[in-house]
Structure to design on (82 residues):
């Protein structure tokens, strides 16, 4: 299990490894974290990748690009923290 933080460094695509601090797209046992002020918003198609240990959005997730757009699909989580 790893904590994988959205950086949005490369694009808006959730499934682009360069957008994550670990350099890889989160997997089923990972914690997905959205925090800080990313340069790009997140566009997520959970039909491709939607199963995680937990989803966390921290209070400092802000700025003009602090959005998560879920385009289609189902998210499967053990827990979520906002």
């Amino acid at each position: 299990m790893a904590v994988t933080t959205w950086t949005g460094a490369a694009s808006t695509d959730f499934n682009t490894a360069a957008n994550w601090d670990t350099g890889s797209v989160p997997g089923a046992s990972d914690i997905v974290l959205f925090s800080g002020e990313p340069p790009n918003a997140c566009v997520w198609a959970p039909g491709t990748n939607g199963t995680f240990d937990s989803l966390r959005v921290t209070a400092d997730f802000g700025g003009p690009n602090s959005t998560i757009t879920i385009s289609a699909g189902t998210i499967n989580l053990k827990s979520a923290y906002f």
